[in-house]
Amino acid sequence: MEIINTIINRVKAILVSPQTEWPIIEAENAPHVKLCTNYLALLALIPAIAAFIGYGIIGFRVPILGMHVSSIEIGVRQAIMLYIQMVGGAYLTAFIIDLLAPNFGAQKDLNRTFSLVAYAYTPMLLGGIFFIFPKLSWLAFFAGLYGLYLLYIGLQPMMKVPTEKQPSYFVVSLLVMLGVAVLLGVILGAILLPKGMYLW
After folding, report:
1. How far apart are CA 76 and CA 165, in angstroms?
2. DSSP state of 194
3. Under 8 Å CB-to-CB from 129, ≥6 apart: which residues?
4. Which one is predicted more confidently, 62 or 15?
5. Eight-class DSSP state of 69
6. pTM given for the model
7. Residue 155 gets which letter from DSSP?
8. I want to staple 124 with a disulfide (CB 3.0 to 4.6 A). Which of 72, 144, 146, 200 is the partner?
9. Alpha helices, H only, 36-165
10. Which domain holds residue 69?
């Protein structure tokens, strides 16, 4: 129960007052494994469980076939795919952004970089609840746009990037985040989903 309260308080703080919360997060310098276990991995259950319910129980319409489909197997596959995308995507994104840090005069520290990415993922993870209704699943990614704002303002306190290089580092970080998401989506989709069946 304590860990749930901690997550709720952190979610509220990072969403409502990120300017004051980022310095607090930076000072904590939480190990990335601990942060993943106690925060990211738990919040990533939201889109995973929602996708299982949406695709496996409620079902979705296949326009080409003109029919409504619900399949426990597809629901499980979607849940696994989303979970790996969120957790694995955060790690891969953080690793690359951290690797590029010296090129922008930023501080290289995987713990802080992972914290930056994990907390920037928060709006998208919460928005993952929309996967309960597959037609509204795009709203999860729309919610993730606020995460880009969190990423931008978090770069300076977390990565100590010089102010003049913050915009360029943000653009590169954004491209890395999008690239990782697309790459994982294609790879996992090809492995886990029936041929031609992707999230829509």
Report:
1. 43
2. P
3. 46, 47, 50, 140
4. 15
5. E
6. 0.89
7. H
8. 144
9. 41-43, 45-51, 72-100, 110-120, 122-127, 138-159
10. 2-192
| Nearest of 199, 172, 174, 183 to residue 74 by alpha carbon | 199
Rounded to 5 degrees, what angle do the CA atoms 64, 200, 180 make? 135
The domain total for the chain is 1
- Share the mean pLDDT of the chain: 90
Which residues contact residue 182 at a Cβ distance below 8 angstroms, ignoring those fewer than 6 apart? none
CA 129 to chain centre: 13
Asked, for residue 124, whether it belongs to a domain, the answer is yes
What percent of the chain shows pLDDT beyond 70?
A: 91
Rounded to an integer, what distance in angstroms lies between the CA atom of residue 125 and that of residue 55? 17
Backbone angles phi, psi at 20, to 5 degrees: -90, -20
Q: Packing angle between helix 138-159 and helix 18-28, nearest 10 degrees? A: 60
Q: Whose CA is closest to 87, among 56, 53, 128?
A: 128
- Residue pLDDT, tens place only, 56-108: 888 766 665 556 666 788 889 999 999 999 999 999 999 999 999 999 999 99
pLDDT digits (tens, 9 = 90+) for 129-163: 999 988 888 888 888 899 999 999 999 999 999 99
Token pair 């409504």 is at which residue? 68
Q: Which residue has the tokens 């989903």?
A: 193
Position 79 in a domain: yes
C-alpha Rg value of the chain to the nearest Å: 17
3-state DSSP assignment of residue 67 = strand
**Least trusted range by pLDDT, from 2-6, 36-40, 111-115, 160-164:** 2-6
Q: Is residue 197 part of a domain?
A: no
